[in-house]
Amino acid sequence: MRIEDFIDKVICGDALDTLKKIPDNSIDMGVTSPPYNKRENKKGWLVDKVIYKGATDNLPEEEYQKIQIEVLNELYRVLKPGGSFFYNHKIRWERGVMLHPMDWLRKTKWVIRQEIIWDRMIAANLRGWRFWQVEERIYWLYKPEDKNIIGKELKSKHALLTSIWRFPPENNNPHPAPFPIALPVRAIYSIMDEKKGGIIIDPYCGSGTTLVAAKILGHHYIGIDISEEYVDYSLKRLKNYKNEIKAVEEELSRHVVRKTFKERKERGEFVGRYRTSNKKEVKSLFEYFEDESVNA
Q: N or C: which end of the chain has fewer CB within 10 A?
């Protein structure tokens, strides 16, 4: 099949089966959050147990990880060399045993470029077996181009947002575990920058958050979900995408830098904790970051 057969569609089907039909090296980047395999038995005081429409979240852990490796390797195949994929997951415990996403990510073909902490600012379970877990992980996965595993450097206006992303989960959404639109917007805009017309994929698109973010940012999208209900909701949300432009603009407003590192160096201003280009007095870190960014 041609990539044109998938562009700007929300496909109801199994992620792995659908990915196998997509041509090699045809997609620019992607963002997703798969079902976490929480076994449908995890319930906190604030958050009820997660039940997905039309899908199970209760697989033997070995089988779950095997499927995730296969899906991630198919994503690696369909992304263009130099492409990035942002994979949202979390640390889980089953009968006291920690299950970490790194357990299966290191078994994929991807280069794990960075581990980002998503500070959700709210705990799902307020019991005291452990310190309240308010964070999830976002893994920036990279497909090397010409054996370059480092990749291109981010612009300062994106990199200054740091490796801790702080925003709450989305409310008023029929999906049991939606991430906020700011998350895919930050990922897509940081990689694609001002480029338009890319192809963004989400193989577990759920309520369509990644797809709406891609559309508003001027890109094509490919969504996959096994649930007819979530596919229908995604299509309605895409139709009414203008309702979410304000939230996207709010995230874009955070990608601002007043002075680049190069400009600071040329002017003999702060460029590092121990060194300046002309021995002038170093500003405090507080002053530096206040001047470097807006709402970072």
A: N
What is the mean pLDDT of the segment spanning 218-225?
98
The DSSP call for residue 155 is: P
Give 218's contacts (C-beta < 8 A, 6+ positions apart): 196, 197
Nearby residues of 244 by Cβ (< 8 Å), 6 or more positions away: 181, 212, 216, 237
**Does the model's pTM come out above 0.90?**
no
The number of beta carbons lying within 10 Å of the beta carbon of residue 250 is 14
Burial class (CB in 10 A: 0-12, 13-18, 19+), 279: exposed
Domain-wise residue ranges, the chain: 3-255, 258-296
Judged by DSSP in three states, 279 sits in: coil
Distance of CA 148 to the CA centre of its chain: 22
Among residues 2, 24, 21, which one has the least CA distance to residue 143? 24
Domain 3-255 is classified in which CATH homologous superfamily? Vaccinia Virus protein VP39 (3.40.50.150)
Distances (CA, A) of 68 to 14, 39, 64, 205, 239: 12, 15, 6, 15, 30
